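FAQ
Q: What does a multi-component entry look like?
A: The components come first, one per line:
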Amino acid sequence: MSKLKLATVWLDGCSGCHMSFLDMDERLIELAEFVDVVYSPIVDAKEFPDEVDIVLVEGAVASVDDEKKIKKIRAHSKTLVAMGDCAVAGNVPSMRNPIGPDAILERAYIENATVQQQIPCVVVPKLLKVVRPIHEFVNVDVFLPGCPPSADTFYAALTALVTGEPLDIPALTRFGA
Amino acid sequence: MTIEELEQIATSVRQEHEKYDYEVNVCMDLACASQGADRLREALVKEAEASGKKVLVRRTGCMGPCSSGPLVRVDPAETLYRHVHSDHAESIVASLGGEPVAELQCDLSDHFDKQVRVVLENAGYIDPEKIDDYIGRDGYKALLTALTEMTPNGVIHRITESGLRGRGGGGYPTGLKWGTVSKAGGDMKYVVCNGDEGDPGAFMDRSVMEGDPHRVIEGMAIAAYAVGASKGFIYVRAEYPVAVSRLTTALREARRRGLLGNNICGTTFNFDMEIRLGAGAFVCGEETALIASIEGRRGTPKPRPPYPAVSGLWGKPTLINNVETYANVAPIMRNGGKWFFNMGSERSKGTKVFALTGKITNTGLVEVPMGIKLWEIIDVIGGGVPDGHKLKAVQTGGPSGGCIPADMLDLGVSYDALMAAGSIMGSGGMIVMDDTSCMVNVARFFVEFCMTESCGKCIPCRAGTAQMYTLLSRFCDGSGTMEELELLEELCGTIKDTSLCGLGMTAPNPVLSTLKYFRNEYIEHIVHKRCPAGVCNIKAPVEVLA
Amino acid sequence: MSDAVEVKTLIIDEQEVSARRGQTILEVARENEIYIPTLCHMEGLSDVGACRMCLVEIKGSKKLLPACVATVFEGMEVSTNTERLKQHRRTILELLFAERNHICSVCVANGHCELQTLGQEQGLTHIRLPYRNPQLTVDASNERFTIDHNRCILCTRCVRVCAEIEGAHVWDVMGRGINSIVITDLHEDWGSSSCTRCGKCVQVCPTGALFDKSKVGTDHPKNPEFLPYLNLMREAQ
Ligand SMILES: Cc1cc2nc3c(=O)[nH]c(=O)nc-3n(C[C@H](O)[C@H](O)[C@H](O)COP(=O)(O)O)c2cc1C
Ligand code: SF4
Ligand code: FES
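Then the predicted structure of the entire assembly, as C-alpha cells:
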C-alpha cells in the first residue's frame, strides 16, 4: 500500500496546534509508516501539492490570503480536517470581530506604536472584515475542536483517518480543551 | 336598573330619534378622522341648524371601507357619501328631502352585500360615547336577561351551543374555556379582555373598542356572571388612546346606570372592571405575558400548563378572551346559540372581522361569515387588486401567519382550512400582495417583526429568530447558499417545536409557507442571484474587504 | 386521599416509575437516575422553563414539554432522548454558541462550564450557524466580581438566586429579544448597585459570565450545591 499524502496548513492561528501535533513525539514515527508529510510549515515544500489525501488546517480565515489558500486547499484535498478551535470556531482571532479590523489596526499600529506610526499595506495581506471558521468558506470533513487538541486526540484521529476506523470526536475533545 | 327601565330608556331613545327627519352619520374612526371628519361634522352641525330642517348629526365608529373616507351615511335613505369634506356640508344638508348629492354618492353594494354584521352591527349607527345609543339598539338587554332569567351554567351552555371559538388567534372553543373557569374552585376569579392587538396591519379590536365599547363591557359582564368572577380587566395597548378614552367614558356611564358595580340589576351579582394599559409589546398579547403585565411584572410568557383558566392573575382562575370574542357574546345571548351556530362553516361558526390592507382597492374593515371563499373577500368585497397588477398572495394571521398563493383563492376562510394551507386565522389581519412583492423579502419582514418583538426569555425564539433573519438577509442580498437554505429549514423546525410560547412557535410560519408555495423565488435569489419581483438589491458578488 | 400521598405511575424511557402527585418529570427522572439535560434549571431555585434543553416527548402528544416544569400524570409515557429531541438540543446549543462571543479557550470557566459540557455531551463539534459577534460589555466595577456579558446565556439563575434566596433582587433582565441583557438595579454599575456582595450569583452562573476576581486562569469551579442545603435549613427553622 502506498503511503497517504498528509499536509498541514497554518492560517490565522498561534501555531499551538502544530506544536501539539509535534507533541505526538515517538508516535509520529509510527504514523510515518502510513503517511508522507508532503506540505507543512515544518517541511520545505513551498507550493500546495495537487493531490493531498488528508490536510490538517490550523487557524481561522482572517485575510484575503487565507481565503484564497483555503479554497485552493479544498480543491486539492480529499479529506479536510479543521484542526483546533480557531479553524473550527474562530476562537481567539475572532475576538476582533465585534470591534472590527480598522479599530484593531489603528490601536496596534498607530496608537500603540512609538515609531513609524502607519498601518502596513505592502507584503501583508488585507484583513477580512470578520474572521470566520473555515467551514463558512469551504466544506470541512472532520472537525477537531480544542485549543489545542491534545497529542492523544491527534493520534487517535489520525489513526482512525488512516485506517478508516470510526471516529468519535466528542469523546476525544471539545471546544477549549 | 331593571329590564323595564332598560326598555324605557330604549323607547325614549327611539322616540328622541323619531323627532328627526334625517340622520347624518359621520364616521369618526381614525382613517376618516385623520382626513378631517371632525371639521366636516362641525360644518354639518352648523349647516343643519341654519337650514331649519330636523337633522341629527351623529358621530359614529368605523363604517368599514376606510379607503373611501371620510364617509357619511344619510338615513333613512341609507345614502352613502365618500371622500366628504367640510366644503360639502352645505350641499349635503341642502339635498336632504331632495335628490342625493351625485358627485359624492357611492355605490358600495358589492362591498357590503356579502358581509354579515354581528360584531359590527352597531358600527356606523351609534355614537360610541352615548350609552343610550347602545341601549337603543338592544344594548345590555342580554346582560339583564342573563342575570334575571338564566343560571350561569345556562349562559355557558348557550355559548357552547353557539360554537363560538376564540377570535384572538388560537380558535379555542369559548364555551369550553368558560366551563373550565367556572368549574375551577377559589374565592376570587377574574375575567380579562385581551385588547392588545399587536399584529401589524390589524385594527379590528381597536375599531370595536372605539366604535362600540359597551358591547365589550356587556360581553365581559355576561362572562363574569357565567364563570363567577367579580373583577375584570381590559388590557388595551397605550397606542390606542381613543379606545382608552371611549372605554373610560363607557365604564363611567355603565356604572352610573348601575350596569356595573354591586348588586347589578337588583341581583346579588357584583362586577366591576378596570382598564390596564400595555406598553406596546407584541408578546404582551400572549395570555401569560399579559397576566404578568397586569400584575406589574415584566411581560414574559410562562410555560403552560397551568393554564390561566386554572391559575391566572395572582394565581386565581382567570378567563381571558379577545375583544371580538366578547363582542359576539351579547348577540348570541339575544338571538340564541342556534342562530349563531347556523352561520359559518362546519367547524368555524359565526362571522369574522378582517382588516383588509395591502394591494387592494377597498381597504378597511369587513365582517364576513366564516367559510366565505377568499376570492369573494378579495375580488368582490375588496374590489380586487388596483392599477392592473396581478394578485400574488394573501397573508393572513399577522406575523405568525402564512402566505396563501393566488391560485388557492377558492379556499373557504375557517380555522381549519387556513391551518391546512399553512397559515392561520390569527386575529384577522389580511394583507393582499401583488406581483410587486418579493416573497423572500416578505418573509424577512415578518421574521424581523418577530425578532424585535421576541421577549428574549427562551433560546429558540430569542436567538433563533435572529438567525432566521440573518439567513434571510443573506438570501435577499444574494450571498446565501443552498446549504444555508437547508439550515434555515431545519432551524424553522426547531423554533416551531421548542419555543416557549406562541410567538416563537409560529415565528417560522412566514418562512415555511413562502417556502412551500414560492420556493422558486428563494432558488432564484440563491442560485441565480436575481430577485424576480425586483425588490431585493442584489449586487454582483464583491469581496468583503476591510 | 390527601395530596401528599397520591401516587402516580408512569413510564420514562421504557422504565416504569412511580411519583408523587405534583412532582415534575425532571424530579422523577432524577430520582430514578434517568438523565435529562438541563441548563436554566437549578436545584433550589424556581423554574422558568426557558432554555428548552429539558424538553421531552409525551406519547400521544405532538407538543414537547419542559421536564423541569411539567408535572406528571397517571399513565404518562415519557421519552427523554429521541432523535428528534437530540437534534433540537444540538440546534439550541448551536444557537447559544453563535449568539454571543463564547471563546472557551480564554474563559475562566473553561473546563467547569455547563454550556461547554453540554455541547460536548450532545455531540457538537462545530457550529453551523453564522456567529453573530455582538458588541457587549464587561462590568468589573464590583470589587469582588465581574460580569462578562459576552458569556451570558440569559438563564436568569443569577436573577432568581438574588431575588429568591438572597432576597436582594439586584439582578434583572433588561431589553427584549436578542438585545436582552441582565442588569444590576436599574442598569447601574454593579459596583455602585445595591448588591450585597454575597456571591451567590457567581456560584450559580453556569458559564464564565459571572466570576470571582480572585480566581485566575481557568481555575474557577462553581459550587451551587449550597442552595438545596440552604433551603433545607431554612425550612427546618
Ligand atoms: C405572541 C402572541 C400574541 C398574541 N396577541 C394577541 C392579541 O393581540 N390579542 C388577542 O386577543 N390575543 C392574542 N394572543 C392570543 C392570546 O394568548 C389568547 O389566546 C387569547 O387572548 C385568548 O382569547 P380567545 O380565546 O378569545 O381567542 C396572542 C398570542 C400570542 C402567542
Ligand atoms: S450572568 Fe450567568 S447566571 Fe446570569 S443570566 Fe447570564 S449566564 Fe445566567
Ligand atoms: S431546564 Fe427546563 S427549560 Fe431549562
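Q: Is there any commentary attached?
A: Sometimes. For this entry: Residues 83-99 of chain C form the longest helix (17 residues).
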